[in-house]
Design brief:
31% of the residues lie in helices and 16% in strands. By secondary structure, it is of the alpha/beta class. It folds into two domains: 5-275, Aconitase, domain 3; 302-464, Aconitase, domain 3, CATH 3.30.499. The strands form five sheets. It has a five-stranded parallel β-sheet with strand order 5-4-3-6-7, with helices on both faces. A five-stranded parallel β-sheet has the order 17-16-15-18-19. A four-stranded parallel β-sheet has the order 11-10-9-12. The longest helix is centred in the N-terminal third of the chain and has 17 residues, at 77-93. 52% of the residues are buried. It binds 3-isopropylmalic acid and iron/sulfur cluster. Residues 35-36, 63, 128-130, 143, 411 line the site of 3-isopropylmalic acid. Iron/sulfur cluster binds next to helix 12. GO terms for molecular function: 3-isopropylmalate dehydratase activity. Residues 7-457 form the Aconitase/3-isopropylmalate dehydratase large subunit alpha/beta/alpha domain. Residues 418-442 are annotated as: Disordered. Belongs to the aconitase/IPM isomerase family. LeuC type 1 subfamily.
Length: 477
């Protein structure tokens, strides 16, 4: 019987298989950041073990880093300790680190791909749930816990429980103004935050094939929000074009050999998935979340749902609680929800394509009075590219704040936070209670919707904006 893409990558990495035991897999790339690595290094130290493959291990600073005044000492003692600990550990164990201030610094899931470290057919792990991002290249990429981080540091292998396979096939054309973020939010609303549990999801179909690498990363990034172990997209010419010439991509003859192998990384025609979901791209629209998990979403044109409309009692209860926390009432049109803050950034939507999209919406316009808009590139390289294109100027001219790269307001581990009761439209991936600061209320949106929301002051899409003549713009629905 044929094999799926995920099964092929898995099989190519098994270093030990024994009856009744999980397979032991070789890990090609281990990414580290300051939050989940300290105890793992402590474990190595206690056992007198080195890092087995420093050449396959790389660290960056992202979660605790400030996005302003990065040349000043870090004020928050917890963040300072986290960063100092990572620096000390990397120096002691010989691990390559891109610290704050380095040109390769940034959110770990932005840095790996842009360096060409993330490649098709590889196994990638990181002590971070959004490692699923790297699956966009046809890599099998998992988030792991700190004890597993220690295991990989020590052995470059990992015992892994078997997974089930799911295909999410998206065919057809995405309507104008509908992005990868809208697509994945719609998928999660459809299958639920537990819908992917135990599965490696492969996204396929004509609508997926047309997406850029940045958009594919947005989709795979949020697989974890559907509970999946990983998300993958088969590598194709778009993937190869993105990778060619990047610092760690194979070169010369090695490139040709690699591409020949990568081309075999497609699910066989006769392979069978354990579960299949089909979506018509043409049926999708700009999507926003109204609740406190990424599965509580709806089209922007809809209203806040009535909890009584949920058939499942636990969904009903979750909706009731979410509306209370979010300060929303059933039946309220989503377009009438006013925000205080707009955040464009994160490993979901902090790449150059995302910044271009947001800039194209705010160009020549002004952020609404009383709204704060933060634009935070996912990495220093993204920032440099954006500056080269003049995007930073577009944002600042519109009244937005242009910040230094990092996780920033994606989560409250650094100074960029919402105040209690404040509401944001955010291009990040989690809208959990307190995620962006204690009492903060988060609506997950695409970069285009974020930018239009900043201009209008209420949840909006570019189509809600008018140009100087009062005509609706052509930027999409
Ligand atoms: C801090 C880290 C462990 C966490 C994760 O695993 O994803 C963070 O990146 C997040 O997005 O919530
Ligand atoms: S940007 Fe957000 S989701 Fe991504 S690694 Fe940082 S905190 Fe996690």
């Amino acid at each position: 019987m044929g094999r799926t893409l995920a099964e092929k990558v898995w099989d190519d990495h098994v270093v030990r298989r024994a009856e009744g035991e999980p397979d032991l897999l070789f890990i090609d790339l281990h990414l580290l950041h300051e939050v989940t690595s300290p105890q793992a290094f402590d474990g190595l130290r206690m056992n007198g073990r080195p890092v087995r493959r420093t050449d396959l291990t790389i660290a960056t600073e992202d979660h605790n880093t400030p996005t302003l005044d990065i040349d000043k000492p870090i004020a928050d003692p917890v963040s300072r300790t986290q960063l100092e600990t990572l620096r000390k550990n990397c120096a002691e164990f010989g691990v390559r680190l891109h610290p704050l201030g380095d040109v390769e610094q940034g959110v770990v899931h932005v840095v790996g791909p842009q360096l060409g470290l993330t490649q098709p057919g590889t196994t990638v792990v990181c002590g971070d749930s959004h490692t699923s991002t790297h699956g966009a290249f046809g890599a099998l990429a998992f988030g792991i816990g700190t004890s597993q981080v220690e295991h990989v540091l020590a052995t470059q292998t990992l015992p892994l429980a078997p997974f089930r396979t799911m295909a999410i096939t998206v065919d057809g054309e995405l309507p104008g103004g509908v992005t990868a973020k809208d697509l994945i939010l719609a998928v999660i609303t459809k299958i639920g935050t537990g819908g992917g549990q135990g599965y490696v999801i492969e996204y396929r179909g004509s609508a997926i094939e047309k997406l850029s690498m940045e958009s594919r990363m947005t989709i795979c990034n949020m697989s974890i929000e559907a509970g999946a172990r990983a998300g993958m997209i088969a590598p194709d010419q778009t993937t190869f074009d993105y990778l060619e010439g990047r610092p760690h991509a194979p070169q010369g003859e090695d490139w040709d050999t690699a591409v020949a192998y990568w081309k075999t990384l497609r699910t066989d025609d006769d392979a069978v998935f354990d579960h299949e979901v089909r979506i018509d791209a043409a049926s999708l629209a700009p999507f926003v979340t109204w609740g406190t998990n990424p599965g509580q979403g709806a089209p922007l044109s809809a209203s806040v749902p009535d909890p009584a409309s949920f058939a499942d009692p636990s969904d009903r209860l979750a909706a009731e609680k979410a509306l209370e926390y979010m300060g929303l009432t059933a039946g309220q049109p989503l377009r009438e929800v006013a925000v205080d803050t707009v955040f464009v950034g994160s490993c979901t939507n902090g790449r150059i394509e995302d910044l271009r999209a947001a800039a194209s919406v705010v160009r020549g316009r002004q952020v609404a009075d009383g709204v704060r808009m933060l634009v935070v590139p996912g990495s220093v390289r993204v920032a440099l590219q954006a500056v080269e294109e003049g995007l930073d100027k577009v944002f600042t001219a519109a009244g937005a704040e242009w910040r230094h790269a990092g996780c920033s307001m994606c989560l409250g581990m650094n100074p960029d936070q919402l105040a209690p009761g404040e509401r944001s439209a955010s291009t990040s991936n989690r809208n959990f209670e307190g995620r962006q600061g204690k009492g903060g209320r988060t609506h997950l949106v695409s970069p285009q919707v974020a930018a239009a929301t900043a201009v209008v002051g209420r949840l909006a899409s570019p189509a809600d904006l008018t140009d100087a003549t009062g005509a609706a713009t052509l930027q999409g629905v």
